[in-house]
Structure to design on (294 residues):
């Protein structure tokens, strides 16, 4: 198995973990504020990661200092902005609307890749995006096109669109400004940037609203988002983008609504319906078209 094929398979993991992240954010939206969940998530992730990466961080300090502007911008768009905006979005928008906004990421990645990296958009990629989009719409519309026509837009929809654009910019930057730094060490540095950025916002929130109640649900949410939706998902995403490119990796974000539906069945007892199977089939078919070599 080639390295490209291996990472195409492993790129399934980030959407699965991020689907769980979205569910956790919605499930605890009345118990923990977005800035609280984002700050404690990344602070815990940094505490878990830094002991294993501090040597590499220090060893590559000259490179990081020389490219500090790129590092700071990547940290702002990924760690600080994307997740905080996502948690803010799910407080004021429906799951359907948020998923539709997030599904614009592959298109953003293709366009940014074309404008920023000069990457051509092959016909197979365009067709793959269209097929995957149909699958995504089948899932979020629950097999009823009329549901899409009745969608209204809330501030959360705009926040989700901004979050998606933020992640797309970060993903293209991974390819455009590839740094000769081990992935785990780079992630640790990006988390540092995010935590430093979020700290003043968190302090302001505590001063005005007090400290959150550390209930088992809240602590579980912080633990899941820190370990799985942060460290594990970011590692596989960053490495996958480096190997297969941002545009190709972006097709895998169409799996998020599918995985969200499956997790809802397993965790919330919802029924698995025919449109989940149809949507999943189309999503995988689209990914296959978009990732097939010319």
């Amino acid at each position: 198995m080639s390295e490209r094929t291996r990472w195409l398979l492993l790129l399934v993991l980030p959407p699965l973990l991020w689907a769980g992240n979205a569910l956790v954010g919605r499930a605890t939206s009345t118990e923990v504020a977005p800035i609280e969940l984002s700050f404690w998530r990344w602070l815990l992730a940094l505490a878990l990661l830094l002991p294993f990466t501090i040597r590499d961080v220090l060893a590559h300090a000259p490179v990081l200092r020389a490219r500090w502007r790129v590092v700071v911008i990547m940290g702002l768009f990924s760690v600080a902005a994307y997740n905080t905006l996502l948690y803010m979005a799910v407080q004021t928008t429906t799951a359907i609307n948020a998923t539709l906004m997030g599904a614009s990421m592959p298109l953003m990645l293709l366009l940014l890749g074309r404008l920023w990296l000069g990457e051509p958009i092959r016909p197979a990629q365009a067709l793959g995006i269209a097929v995957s989009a149909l699958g995504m719409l089948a899932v979020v519309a629950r097999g009823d096109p009329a549901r899409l026509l009745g969608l209204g837009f809330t501030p959360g929809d705009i926040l989700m669109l901004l979050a998606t654009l933020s992640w797309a910019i970060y993903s293209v930057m991974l390819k455009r400004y590839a740094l000769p730094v081990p992935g785990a060490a780079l992630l640790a540095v990006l988390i540092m940037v995010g935590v430093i950025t979020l700290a003043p916002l968190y302090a302001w929130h505590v001063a005005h609203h007090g400290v959150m109640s550390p209930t088992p649900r809240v602590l579980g949410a912080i633990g899941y988002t820190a370990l799985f939706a942060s460290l594990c998902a970011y590692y596989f995403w960053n490495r996958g983008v480096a190997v297969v490119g941002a545009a190709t990796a972006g097709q895998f974000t169409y799996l998020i609504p599918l995985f969200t539906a499956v997790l809802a069945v397993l965790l919330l007892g919802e029924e698995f319906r025919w449109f989940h199977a149809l949507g999943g089939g189309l999503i995988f078919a689209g990914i296959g078209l978009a990732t097939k070599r010319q």
Residues 3-291 form one domain. The radius of gyration is 19 Å.
